[in-house]
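Reviewer 2 asked us to include a model.

Predict the structure of this chain.
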Amino acid sequence: MNLAVMQPYLFPYIGYFHLIYAADLFLIYDDVHYIKQGFVNRNNVLSANGVTRFSVPVPGGSSNRLISELEFSPNVEKILRTIEQCYSKTPYFEPVFKIVQDTLKFEDRRIASVCQKGFNDILAYLEIDKTFRRTSELEYDRNRPAQERLIEFCRTFGADRYINTPGGRALYTRKDFTEHGIDLRFVDPIPVEYCQGTAEFVPYLSIIDILMHCSPGETRALLTQYTLA
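Predicted model (structure tokens):
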């Protein structure tokens, strides 16, 4: 079984979804410290003026607090207007904008809850079935070093392969996981391009941009554009 672990991000870019797609079980790592100025609560979309940042406020957001202790602000109308202005003329605006609305207005304002709502609704729209769990709901030794926690997660769920982002190469080695019977792999994205209606393709935008321009079938094909190195 393939296991992946990652902090919750709001409508992340396709590389995050490659990680979800490659995993049989995806653990939402929400009992770690919140990172201000990160991508937990923000991302980029494409407007007529170029790349535009959207950001959902996190009241009391601090690197001294755990993600699981924080909530998104309910004030999302400005963000919804921004996304509507950016994408109202795209081919798949109506079904995708509903996903965005339902996610941003989700009653449970906890960060992991809102992000998971987005993951679930996007995957349902794409007819992809994946399983999520939150680390804040698990019983494990939170005082262990990060690598030992990941190995413990693998043992808990019987995973024989742990999948990480390319950035994990600076943190982990295959030997350390192999000693515990776990195959360590990294998701290396293959460059993704699709029709954005612009003269020059703009990469690394929120998954919203792909969903607005591509059909569910086209998006599913883009989700397979990675290698497990």
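The beta strands are 2-6, 25-28, 42-47, 50-55, 131-134, 161-164, 183-189, 226-228. The first helix runs from residue 14 to 22. We have added this to the supplementary material.
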